[in-house]
Each structure stands twice: as C-alpha cells, then as structure tokens.
Amino acid sequence: LGLCVSRASASVLNLNCCLVLLPMCRVLLAFLRGSQKVASRKTRRLLDKCKTFHVTCGVTICIFSVLHVAAHLVNALNFSENYNEDFPSINAANYRGEVSQLYLMSVLVPGLTGVIMVLVLFLMCTASTYAIRVSNYDIFWYTHNLFFVFYILLMLHVSGGVLKYQTNLEEHPPGCFNPNKTLQENITVPKAFEESFPDYTTEPFPEDLSLPEPFVQNNFMRICSEEPKFQSHFPETWFWISGPLCLYCVERLYRYIRSNKPVTITSVISHPSNVLEVRMIKDDFKARPGQYVILHCPRVSALESHPFTLTMCPTDTKATFGVHLKVVGDWTERFRDLLLLHSNQDTEILPIFQQRRYPKLYVDGPFGSPFEESLNYEVSLCVAGGIGVTPFASVLNTLLDGWKCYKLRRLYFIWVCRDIESFRWFADLLCTLRNKLWQENRPDYINIQLYLSQTDGIQKIIGEKYQALNSRLLIGRPRWKLLFDEIAKCNRRKTIGVFCCGPNKISKILHKLSNSSNSYGTRFEYNKESFS
Q: What residue stretches are annotated with the FAD-binding FR-type domain (predicted)?
C-alpha cells in the first residue's frame, strides 16, 4: 500500500509541478490576452484566473508532498523488514532489519534531496500566506525564488533509482524454475516434484531431466536460462517538467534582454496621501491600457522587483508612460527617498537634455491584466478602491486621446476612498476628460461617482477647477444593489463588463451581484484584480 500511494502521489506531483510554472509565463499570457484571433473573450477571461490556478497547483503540491513523504516512511520500514535474500540487487536496504529510515533519509540521493525539498517547500508555503505577504513582502519574494532550488533537487531526487524493474523477462520469466540452482534456499518445492525425486538434495539437475507437470505451462517448460537482472526505472519527472521549465527559462532570458536598458525618468511628482508618480521614456516601448510593468532599481535592492500598473500609456503622439505607486513598504520608501532627493520635491517637467540625474531604473514588461477588456465592451462598470484606481487611470488617459476607435460607448466609473485628498491623484484627468466629452456633445459617455467612505464633516475637493467633481462626490459607501439595478435598467439586454480593483470585501459583493439575475435581461460579466 505504501508503494502504491507513493507512486500515485508522485504522478500527481509531476503533473502539478508541470502546470504550476505555466501561469508564471507572463509574456506568453500577455500575447494570448492581446491577440483577438488566438483567444476569444471567454478564453481571455479564463487567463485572468492564472493566479488562482497557480495557487491551486501550489496547494496541491503541498498536500501530495506530505502524502508522498508519509508513504515513503512506510516504504522504508517495509524495505527493511521484507529484505529479499533471493534477489539482493533489488533491495534498498543492505540487510534484513536494518534501520533503513535513517539510511534512506540521510545517505541515498532520493532521501537527502527529499528532505531538503520538504524544507524548501515549507518555507515557500508559509511565506506565501496572506499575513506574511502583507506584513513583509520581501520574505515572500525571496523565499518564492527558491523554486529554482526546488526544481534542481526534484531532478536529482528522481535519479536515485530505488525502485527497479527486471530487464530479462524472456530469459528469466516470473515463476520460472532454475535447474542449476539448489533447493536449500527458501524455495517452495511442489509436492509432485518431491515424490518424483525423493533423493534430490544439492546436486544440479541432469541435462536430460523431464520436469513434472507443475513446471510445464502452455506446452512449454518455464526454465530459467540466466539469473534475473534488475535496472532502475527511467525517471518520468523529466518528461513532465522539462517543457514548462525550458519555456519559463527562455521567457526569463527574453525578459532580461528586453529590460537590460534603463529607462529615462522625465519627472517625479509627489501626490497627497503618500503617492508618488513617476513618468519615464523607453525606446520602442508599447503598452495597452490596463497593463502593468515590473520596476527594478538596483540602488534600492539588487534583487527585488515589484509590479505597478501603468497609469499612462505611450501613444502615437507621445512616448511618455508613467506609474503611480503608494509608499507602504521598505522598497517604496527607499525608492521615494532616492527620487525626491534628486528632484527636491519639484514637479517641474524638464526637457530630456536638461533632466536631473535620477537613479537607474529598469522596466520589465508590459504584462496583461483583466482591465484590458474594459474597452472591448459596449458598456463597462469600473469600480476602484483607493490606489486601485491606477489601472482605470490608463483607460481614462486613453479615452482622453480619442474614444471613437474603441467599442466602448458608456463607462460607469465608481471610485471609493477614505481620504478626501486621494481624489486629487487623478482629479485633473477626470475634469479634463469630462470637459472634452461635453465639448464633443457626449456628456453621457462617462458617469463618474466618487464616494468618501470616512469623513468627520462636509468635505470638498479643493480648487475651482474641481467644481464638476464636487457635484459627483457622495458621502458614505455605494449602495451596490441599487447601483446594479439602475445600470441594468438603463442598458436592457446588453452585456456589461464589471471590473474591480480594490479590497476583497468590495470584490465579493460585486461578484455576487454580477452572477445574480435581473428582470431587464442585462448580463454582467465580472473581471477582478485584487491588490490585497
């Protein structure tokens, strides 16, 4: 039973170790997501579940690793107690009764690599919990990169050859009788043979011996012509993980080559509520609204890189792109100090030939996200919570450059913040876009609703130019059920894309409402990306 369980769990581990790498091939996913011909909308929505799929595979690996280890502990005891003296080469232990648990777990290659793999997997799993990721993201990032060590050990783990199979079945079929072998060993001799040869003890059989009926099957004699030969099984793990592992390594190499040239930082702007905006330029950089990039600053950390959503994408008329990052951890704090040290908190945008000496910054990407689909619906509902507004900022910037070339004809934009100052991050963008749509006689194109969830009195967005937003500012939290009913009523029998970037609490409410039916024949398709 222990052998069956260990082999079965090993097959499950091979499959999941193969699949767990595929969701991390970000370039491949970005290509599939951006290709209308290769992937349909339903397929692209399935790609949005890549993170959930990755986590599911990781949890499965942890569960079946525990089962695999427990089964091998039973096997170690069985290998010791059931030592086969007839075929010594097939044994894992050296002799009967050997304390093979210690021998197999510390001396043999499979045992030693297995112990280290369990320790690595334990570190990766514990550091992936929500509490660790929120309190100290660095621990999660460093331990998760131990997967390279895990896969190297995995390939060594299967090369030990503990389990063996017989290679000479034709010369030594199972159950055959060896006439040149004595019967003093632990061989059960048929009674008919003993009656026919009562005086036979240790002498070899004569060549002209006729065997009794028990040794004759299917009209031929089952006689062994040679001793059995055993060989270790060829490891199957290579077949499972070699393809995805090579694909992932090739992609990482491609990403390294693509991002080895630093970008040119054009400006750094400090916004309220510890938010920093960085604008930059990079040759041949192209991105779609809703995508994100990975920033790497060697002066902050030689190994760490962090993802940030693009809030401004390059267009045909301008090459500038930018990100907004909230200062919430050690990496962002050090990054802010380096940038503001050089800019002296000055928001002036200088020409490239007059630019200041900012630290080197490398950009890897862009990579796809669910929010790319927001422009592919006729009607879209975008819900943001706090800094979760960043993916929608790039969509709004794109609409500011021109909206007629996209399928989108109506946009509901809901933004919930705790601090009134947070709305100032993109207040200018919202006002500019609203004024542009009014001038083009499309005031109904975008419906802006701003919610201030916490307040100690009447609050307004300061500034005369923000009067249009002050009229859209509401105190409290959105009444989501009424909001969905109103949108469904105004868009009968249409498919509406729902996009959310915010806390899980809001995400769960929107997901539930999107799956519920309504009397207007309106269908809501939910798309989510959570930063929590």
A: 258-373
